[in-house]
Amino acid sequence: MNFSAQNAARRRRRQGQRGSVLVIGLLLVAFGTLGMTAWVMVIQGRAGLVEALEHSASRRISLENSKAVARRALSELAMGSDSGLASNYEVTIPDGWGSVSIAAFADAPLAYTGTVRYNQVGGVAPVAYSLDVTAALGMRVRNADNDGWTQESVSYLYELKSRSPAFSGQYLRLHTPTLTEGASRTTGGSLGVRGHTIAEGPGTGLSLAHESTRFAAADGISTVALPDAGGGVVLPDNVAFVPRTTGVVAGTAADFSGRLSVVKNDATACNSQWHQATSGTYYAVDGAVPLNSTEETGGENPAVSSTGTGEVRIRLAHALLDRDVVISGNTSTLYLIGQTTAAGKAAAASFDPLRIVLVQPAGSAFDLGQIEFQGENSRRLILAIKKEGGGSAVQLSIVGSGFPVWRGLFDFENFDASVTHAGTAGWFVEGGLRTDRGITGGSLVLREDTAPGDVLPGMASRDGWVEAYRN
C-alpha cells in the first residue's frame, strides 16, 4: 500500500475541514457584528424617540398648564368684572412649566356690544357679543444647545362671549336656587316651551312636568323625558354645554354653578337690570307712595302711577313712557296695561325697548302677590323681579280675550309663579323666562321673538363664557 499517498489525502481533508470551520466562524462573527450593530442602532433610535417624546410631552403639558391658568383667570376674574383687567395679568408656573401674560382691557365682558362673532361651542346662541383678549402663553422647550430647558411663547386669542339664553332658543331656563338654597323648582300645568328647556343642577327639589320641544339637564338631574306638544316624548339632548356664568354671585369670582343673580347684583352691575336701569333717567316708584304727577307721567292716564297702597300701574304704550321704570318694593299688585287695537300694537312695536325692574327688599310693607297683564303687548319688554327676602308666590294673571300675545323677557328671582286666566284661553309670551324657582298653573306658551331688533339683545341679561383660539 502507498501509505504516503493516503496520508497526503487525509491531510488535505483535515485542511479543508479547518477552512470550513474558519469560514463558518468568520460568518458567525460577521452576523453577530451586524446583529449587535443593528441592536445598538435600535437602542439608539429608541432613546432618541423617548427623548423626542419627552420634549413633545413637556411642550404639550406646559402649554396646557398655561391654557388652563389663562382660562380660569379670564373666567373667574374677568367674566364677572365691571371693568375688565386694569393691568396685564402675569403668572409664571414654577420650574418652567408654563406662563401666562394677558393683555389689560377696560371693557366689562357681560356688557360689551362692540363685536358680534359666530360661536364654535355647543349650547349657546349661534352668534354672541365677543370681547377679544390676547394672551401670550409659555411652553417648555429645549434650548439651542439641547442641554437644558427654556420658555417659548405662543399667542392665543380669547373671546369673552355673552348673550341672553332667549336668543339661543332657550325660552325656559331653570337656574339653581340662589337666595333660598335647595328651594323646590316645579313646572307643570299647561306650560309649553316651543324651544329649549334648560335645567341647571342639582336635581334636589326639581320636578319637571311641562311640554317642551327640546330640553337638556345638568349632571345629577334624574329627569329622563318631557312630553312634547304632540303627546310624544322628548328625550334630553346629549350635548356638552360650555360652562356659563351670569357674573359674581358670592365672593369675588364669577359663578359657573348655574346660580342666577341678574335683577340686582352689586358685584356684577354690568349684568344687573337694576343697575343698568338706574344708571340713566328712569321713573322711580315706591308702592307705598302715591304717584300721579302730570309733569312726570302725563295727566289723567299717566304712564306710571302708584296708589300708595301697594298698587302700581304702567301703561306700556304711553307716549311719555320713554325711560325705564324702577320699583323699590312695597308693591302688592303690578298692573301692566298693554294694547287692545291693531293700531295700538303697531305703534308699540316701534317704541324703544322698555325695562321694568322691581326689587322687593326684606321687610317690604307689601308683598308682591299678583302681576296683571291686560290686553296684548307688542313693545319689546324686559320684566325683572327679585324678592330679596322671599315671600309668597306671584300670580301671573292674564286679562283679555282669545290667546293674547305678549313680547317679553322675564327674569324672576326667589319666588314661584303661577299662571291664571281671566277671559282668555291662554297666553303666548314671545321671548323667554329665566328663574331660580318654579312656574305652574294655566296655559302659557313660551316661544321665539322673531324680531327682537338690535337694542334688546344688548339690554337683556346674559350668560357669559370663554372661547380660545391659537393665533
> Could you report the average pLDDT, rounded to the nearest whole number?
88
Taken as a percent bin, the fraction of beta residues is: 25-35%
Largest sheet: 10 strands, parallel
Low-confidence stretches: none
Helix content estimate: 10-25%
End-to-end C-alpha gap: 100 Å
Coarse shape:
elongated
Number of helices: 5
Tell me the structural class.
Answer: alpha/beta
Radius of gyration, whole Å: 35 Å
Q: How do you describe this structure in short?
A:
This protein has helices spanning 3-78, 273-278, 294-297, 342-349, 456-459, and strands at residues 89-92, 99-102, 116-118, 127-142, 149-163, 170-174, 185-186, 190-199, 206-207, 211-217, 226-227, 233-234, 282-285, 304-306, 311-315, 324-327, 333-337, 354-360, 370-374, 381-387, 394-402, 405-413, 417-424, 427-435, 439-441, 443-447, 463-470.
Reconstruct the topology from this structure.
Blueprint: H1 3-78, E1 89-92, E2 99-102, E3 116-118, E4 127-142, E5 149-163, E6 170-174, E7 185-186, E8 190-199, E9 206-207, E10 211-217, E11 226-227, E12 233-234, H2 273-278, E13 282-285, H3 294-297, E14 304-306, E15 311-315, E16 324-327, E17 333-337, H4 342-349, E18 354-360, E19 370-374, E20 381-387, E21 394-402, E22 405-413, E23 417-424, E24 427-435, E25 439-441, E26 443-447, H5 456-459, E27 463-470
Parallel strand pairs: 6-8, 6-24, 7-9, 8-10, 8-26, 13-16, 15-17, 16-18, 17-19, 18-20, 19-21, 20-22, 21-23, 22-24, 23-25, 24-26
Antiparallel strand pairs: 1-2, 2-4, 3-4, 4-5, 5-27, 11-12, 14-15
